[in-house]
Every structure is written in structure tokens, then in C-alpha cells.
Amino acid sequence: MLGLMQDRPLLISQIIDFAAAYYSDVEIVSRSIEGPIHRYGYRDAHKRSKQLAEALQGLGIKLGDRVGTIAWNTYRHFECYFGISGIGAVLHTINPRLAPEHVAYIANHAEDQIILVDVNLLPIVEGVWDKLTTVKHVVVMTDRAHMPASSKIPNLLCYEELIADKPGTLRWPDFDEKTASSLCYTSGTTGNPKGVLYSHRSTLIHTMMSSNGAVIPMDPDTTVLPVVPMFHANAWGLVYAAPIAGAKLVFPGAKLDGASVYELLDKEQVTLSAGVPTVWLALLDYCAQNKLKMSSVKRTLIGGSAVPISMIARFWNEHGVEVIQGWGMTEMSPLGTTTRFNRGERQLPDAERFAITAKQGRPVFGCEMKIVDDAGNDLPMDGSVSGNMVVRGPWIVKGYMKGDGKSQFGKDDWFATGDVCKIEKDGSVVITDRSKDVIKSGGEWISSIDLENAAMGCPGVAEAAVIGVAHPKWDERPLLIVHPRPGANVTKEQVLEFLQGKIAKWWMPDDVQFVEAIPHGATGKILKTKLREQFKDYKLPTA
């Protein structure tokens, strides 16, 4: 027997309709690419999204066509999220930090018909223009006064002129909720990037899950600053969740340095922010150097890579800010786990509370996860053993664009994440490594993540990375690579002494090397592949 309930499709256009109707004057604030701060409300964003949709239809965009964006977090990019998907086209956010060959590859692989680009990112499109095979129009996301005087791309269109004469009265079309809505490509650290094609249904379910108080606490009293880029898994879904919650949105534009982020946090009285650890490290150091405090921020969501306990402690001790750690992947829309305190745990002493936050969190409702061995057999989830994490759920990928990467998809829809973790009795997930980064020493596994997090607590250490280096007896041993803080004179002996008692004795790095910078990928993650290449001929002193 089926229930007697209406079967209305879940569509992204409903999000901006809802915000315009019930939170019409709630602000969206942007540091624009042109410089000035731009302000308007959800009602204005709603109309301009419809004007964009009408303009795209005028350029021939129809259901299923892919439209690329190469843009920072601004109000115009926000309009693209609804104007493109709202008419059944596919929003394809392209990461401007990717190598040019990857930008060209994914634009062609996606078969983008139009690319909308911020004016200061136009050189990226110009650099690959002769390699783009499907793009018919390039729209520069600015006004006429800031359009480039010349370009190698013919017939550039101006965003503001394109939408200016449109009425903004479009009635959003209805279509199947399983229709593709947006497209994100993995960062492509090995091989070509792979396309993850979200649907309206998956996005709406993910949004309703993430905007509930147990996952990302938001309501009309919340002011959200998504530092995480909108081209990185849809800013972790915040651009959809904030309008549903009626939260004020603050977009940082292209300036993500400590001074610029602090200015927005302070002037706009931001209460919740989100970004990767490298951004927050720069912000914390800027505040410390200038004796500043984040006066309004209550929580910050940190993801992209493991959050060291030293950073969790700094946020709380120096600013009274609670850290929420999130774990997920582009393939998961992206949220899989977040820090969630069970009854009574918030009252624990700081050290115990920080230890809970330093784990990757507990699964959010709708995301099933388990650990398996290399043969695919289920392993116990009592914290006793690590295994390969697999996940499934209504917002988790079941296949890549055009059939790429089939090896990660198993039976019963389980997706192999490539992470090695243990799951404790209370559901806490502790990721010990990426399967390709785990260090195998004498038949035992050493967690590079745990080693890095411990080293990050050493005074004078700005950032740390650990890789496995060949050893004649133990197969591999850990090499600790350290980027010191400016002006710090930290030594190998000081770092190793600091680690004493904080890690298992046999985990102790066999050597420490100091570098001017640790390489990061397009989404802010440490590039272990580059470090392994850099140190491929390195001989450990213990070898």
C-alpha cells in the first residue's frame, strides 16, 4: 500500500523562492571583484537569478546543457547557482587553481556551452581558449566599466548588460527531481579529474540534512562567511543551506588573506564561518600578531584535511570559538561526518572536548558508512581496528561522469572513499590516512595524519607533513617535513623532543626536514605526491 501524499519534485529553484518569500531583506554581502562591498537581499538575488536564467535561455541554453563558472565567492556567482540549475541546465563550477591542462580537460569533458568568468580570472580562459571545443560564449561577470579593453576571446559578453533588459519574471520550470543540477570535478591529484554529477534531489536532501541544528547550526540570527570556495563541492552546501535557514551570507571575493578575512568577520559580525585549515592558520597568526580577537564568531566549520588539536585549542583559548570538524568528499556532496557532541559531552573539560573535536566527527543522518578489509569483508566498528571506509546514501555518487573510475564502486552501492579509518562504538570516525598515504613499517601501519597533528602542536611549527621513505629493514619509515613559522628557529631536536610521549615510540620520525613551503593542491590539501617526488632520492640517516 502506498501513502496518499503529494509527489512534488525537489528542485533547487525552491530554495531561492523560499528565501525570497520569507527572508526577502536578509542581506547577502560580498566583497566584489571590482573592490567595493556589495549588499542586497534574497529578494534581489531571486530576481537577478531569474534574469540570468532568461538571458541563458536567450543564448540557447536548454535542459541538460552544461554551463561553466570560473569565479570566486560573490553575489554574482550565487546567482549562477540558481539561474543555471533553475532552468534544468547544469552548473559546472571550475576550480581556477587547477593546472591549465586540467581546466581545458574538464571544460571539454563536461561539454560546457557557456563559461561565466570573473574579470580577474579571465586570463585562465584566454590561456586555454584555443583548446576549448564546445564553448560558444564567454560571459565576464562584471559591468561595462570594468570589462577588459581587449581580449583574445572574440565577442565577450558583459554579465550586467546581458541581464539588464530581462524582466526577471520567469516561472521556474518543473522537471524530474533526478535531473542533473550541478557538476564538480575531483582535484585530479593523480590522472585526470573525474566528474561528480549531482541531482536536484540529492542536493535538496543534502541541504535539508546539513541545515538542521545537529549538523551545521544555522538560523535567522546566524551570519555565515563561507571562506571555502563555491567551486569546492558547492562551498560544502552552505550556499543552499543558508537561504533555507534565513541566515545572512557574507562572501569574501578573491581576498582570503588573514587581514581581509578578519575585516569581514569583524565588520559584518559573522557568527559562523567555514574553510580549510590553511586559511584559518593564516587568520589565527594575523590575529595573534596584531592582538586582535574574533568578537562575534561562535563556531567555525573546518574540513578539507584533518584539523590539528593545536588549532582547535587556539580557536577556543584565544577567541572563544568552537570548532566543528567536518569530513566528506566531492563525491559525497560533500558532508559525511561532523563534530556532534552527545548529551553531557559539552560539559567535559577542555582537553577531553578538544579530543572529541579532533576526530572526524560522527556520521550525519542519511550517510551510511562502514569499514572493510582489502577483500571487502566487514570489519568491527568498535575502535579496535582500522579498515577501508565505504559509504552510501542519497547524496553519494554512484558513478562518475562518462563512466570514469569504475573501480571505486562496489556492490549494493557502496562507494570506496580511499580513506583508512576506524569507527568507534559511539560512531566517532577517526581517519588514520588516505590509503595511498599510509606508512607501512615492519608490517604495521603508521598514521601520517596523527603524526602531522602532533607535530603541529610544537612551538615554531607552522605546518607539518609526513611521508613514508624507503628503509632496508622496515620497508618504510616516516619522514617529517616541517614549514617553520616566520622568525622561528625550531630545530630537529626540539621537534623530536616535543613528540616524546605524544605518539607511539615506534612512530617517531626517523628524520625531520625543514622547507620554505609545503605544497598544496587546488582545494587546499597537502600534495603528498609532490613531496614524495621532491624527496624520492632522500636517504634516511637510519637506513
Give a brief description.
By secondary structure, the chain is α/β, with parallel strands linked by helices. It has 16 helices and 25 strands.
Helical amount: 25-40%
Largest sheet: 9 strands, mixed
Backbone shape: globular
The CATH architecture assignment of the domain at 9-199 turns out to be 3-Layer(aba) Sandwich
Q: What structural class do you assign from the helix and strand content?
A: alpha/beta
Give the termini separation. Answer: 69 Å
By DSSP (H or I, 4+ residues per run), the number of helices equals: 16
Please give the radius of gyration in angstroms: 23 Å
Averaging pLDDT over every residue, what do you get? 94
Low-confidence stretches: none
As laid out across the biggest beta sheet, the strand order is 2-1-11-10-12-13-14-15-16
Q: How would you characterize the overall build of this protein?
A:
- It contains 16 helices and 25 strands.
- Helix 2 (42-58) packs across helix 3 (75-83).
- The chain is globular and about 70 Å long.
- A hairpin with a 6-residue loop joins strand 14 and strand 15 (335-338).
- The mean pLDDT is 94.
- The protein is an alpha/beta fold and 543 residues long.
- The longest helix has 17 residues, at 42-58.
